Amino acid sequence: MANSRRKLIFNISIGFYCSAVIQICICSQFTSSSIDQFNKDRGAFPVAINGEIFPWHELRLPTMVIPLHYDLFVHPNLTSLDFVASEKIEVLVRDATQFIILHSKDLEIMNVTLQSEEDLRYRRPGRKLTVLSYPAHEQIALLIPEKLMADLRYSVTIDFQAKLADGFEGFYKSTYRTLGGETRTIAVTDFEPTQARMAFPCFDEPLFKANFSIKIRRESRHIALSNMPKVKTIELEGGLLEDHFETTVKMSTYLVAYIVCDFNSVSGTASSGVKVSIHAAPDKWSQTHYALEASLKLLDFYENYFDIHYPLAKLDLVAIPDFESGAMENWGLVTYRETSLLFDPKTSSTSDKLWVTRVIAHELAHQWFGNLVTMEWWNDIWLNEGFATYMELISVNVTYPELQFDDDFLDMCFEVIKRDSLNSSHPFSNQAETSTHIKEMFDAVSYKKGACILNMLKDFLSEEKFKKGIIRYLKKFSYRNAKNDDLWSSLSDDCLESDSTSGGFCYSDSKTASNTLTFLRENVEVKQMMATWTLQKGIPLVVVNREGRSLRLQQERFLNGVFKEDPEWGALQERYLWHIPVTYSTSSSNAIHRHILKSKTDTLDLPEKTSWVKFNVDSNGYYIVHYEGRGWDQLITQLNQNHTFLRPKDRISLIHDAFQLVSAGRLTLDKALDLTRYLQHETSIPALLKGLEYLELFYHITERRNVSDVTENLKHYLLQYFKPVIDMQSWCDEGSVWDRRLRSALLKLACYLNHAPCIQKATELFSQWMESSGKLNIPTDVLKIVYSVGAQTTAGWNYLLEQYELSLSGAEKNKILYALSTSKHQEKLMKLIELGMEGKVIKTQDLAPLLHAIARNPKGQQLAWNFVKENWIHLLKKFELGSFPIRMIISGTTSHFSSKDELQEVKLFFESLKAQGSHLEIFQIVLETISKNIKWLEKNLPILRNWLLISI
Ligand code: BES
Ligand code: ZN
């Protein structure tokens, strides 16, 4: 690849420099055949803004010049909202060339000069270079009058300036309101994946790692933060200050960060001596303490676990008032949305605490997975994101066992299964070249499936071996880039390979030669096995058929919404085959049996007679299981007789798989519903909540479609069936995390279903809260419920909106905004959307979740959808195509639709967008989801109706 690119460059450079004076230079340097080549290719080259030919036509940068070091100076002006900057990039020329291609977007470049090492040595001034710009590829070309020589170093100095960006990308402005009502501005960077180029011209690809020395000029009322500790501050004439930061370790451009703000902080020291600080707007300082405790614990955990020191002397975590995603792992300067970092004991719930802990755990894991070892290209972003998500599980389980994160992790795998069982899913390593495609790679498949597959592999290899493997991977590729295969090699005991490479880390040196074969086999096995999970999209279904002690296993591709009888089923199955590490347990013993299912079918013999078999023990495997014959009945009988014979996570997975199989037409809905009847005796809260989740889902589906008889009967069933446990709930914050989550879920359901005692208690608390002018502390577990009930009157709604504006707690604001979005009055919902579009009272960062929440409200679904259709252009001015908010707005306002008319309407809208040149992967996902919903209702509504009639 690199080679072919180099060849291409050679031809282009000829073409470019000869374009104006082609006759003169033809004969002097180049053969006529290369000129022919240029003349042939000429049309293929783009035209720069000034009309000249731009000498590079690929989206990826050439590799003949690579950056080694950036000296970056930035001076933002928070009054005029712009910045002036300059940089000196030291580059190494690998192949002689007459131009340098860099990324640059929306920057005004004033001056570019070049110095050779010799120029620098003799202090000769730089030679001015001509700059061409090709905005479609976000690239500039620096034209060198004389060739740059291979193996020599040069320095390129660039002076540039720009406005602080309006959105959430590059170097942008963010504002916050103080308690006194004053609005203040800060300047902050957010670069991943391709936005460093909006802040400074650079080689903006993850493979071009370099060192960065950063200087920031600021006013004395502000502070400046960057990746590294500050070395010194220089006072300038006129009172300005200039902070100089230490040179960074070798890193990719997307991890560079700097902030100019007036925030306050709390600090502590990790066991290794690293100084950890949490920064927030001054009035939010009191909400920073939990984050400090958590980040110190988690940093200690990771340094121990990976056996690799965090390489910087400090780590800053900053709560940014305007932030598009949840958080960003910039090396040494991690930035967060306020709700992902700040914890307010008065208004943050246990779920909020878990979220903050998870996000910190995730971003700190990136300091190793992502920052120290980076994927070669964005197509393998799952190596960053899947690992960081997997490490959340490992680290939070150890540092905060009381949060019982395990069951949430399981839920996360279930979430991505929904997506991955549609035909529109994609394999991990998708092709990604344009900025929009690259942004789309940050999706559930990379994050969640990545993490779930790693968890499965850990279960297969054993935790010990998996851990050794990832440590080997991190050590071997430190300050470098890696790809899938590098990971699989490290995860196998491939000492042979590492022995032969100097600096490899081999943990099995003492193993004898006779074991070598086993190592090799394991290595091949892991690679082959993982190829089936990473190169193929989708999730397998394991069909189990037991006859006596013989188990017949069969694998196929699990498809949600496509039935075996459908004509397309066969074609969608073709060529899919996984190496599935299956596990199972039986009624006869506690043993966990293991087997790798590598073929379409296989047969196993059970050691003893048994009344049931349960596959996928603890749900560690990424596959769905269907039991043919009497398999499901045998399990249901066990659940009814004594559910504790099955492990809690196995009960959860039975509920999950049963309802998934209903969507795939493999199990009837009444069978799955029958399975949930044992829930009345369920002792595990996560399992109980899983069953409840499906029943609630059916309630929402029928409510949206106005199927009032079924809705009424479901309501009746839910209230009758869960009454004993609802009535047991108190309105307080006591108990374990799951006790508290059960309380929130049940009371939310009860009030939603208008259960009188619930409404009464919530109304009472809401009135007391209003009377106390918002000072009364309502238990955080029920805060959202109380606000939602309060929001149903006009006075309550208006009061909540006032409090929304005043509140300094992001956790509380989210709860209020949700409550406001549950109003039954369309004009109130419209007002919220208008406020979200205006971006003052409701910040733009909260617009996507707001539209999503309104679309979930049966009275708001049409409103939100119409709004998106009519205001698409305005939305695209706020968020980039392919960005997380845009995808959330699309799926959040459409994927619940379940009628043919709605499907048609959505299809037409997507067609019109495609015609305008906007094409996103999410379109196909949404269309498939709606088709699946339609099919589900057609088939299952009558069954649900009948089942309810016999059940209540
Ligand atoms: N690296 C990402 C931030 C990011 C997201 C960059 C999308 C570019 C595009 C960061 O590590 C991340 O994954 N953040 C998550 C939070 C996490 C706990 C799942 C997010 O922003 O949602
Ligand atoms: Zn991440």
Automatic annotation (TrEMBL):
Positions of the catalytic residues: 363 (proton acceptor)
Localization terms from the record: Endoplasmic reticulum membrane
One Pfam entry name: Peptidase_M1_N
Record's keyword annotation contains Transport: no
Bilayer topology: Single-pass type II membrane protein
Enzyme Commission number(s) of this protein: 3.4.11.-
Domain Peptidase M1 membrane alanine aminopeptidase intervals: 290-493
Spans traversing the lipid bilayer: none
Gene Ontology MF terms: metalloaminopeptidase activity; peptide binding; zinc ion binding
Protein name: Aminopeptidase
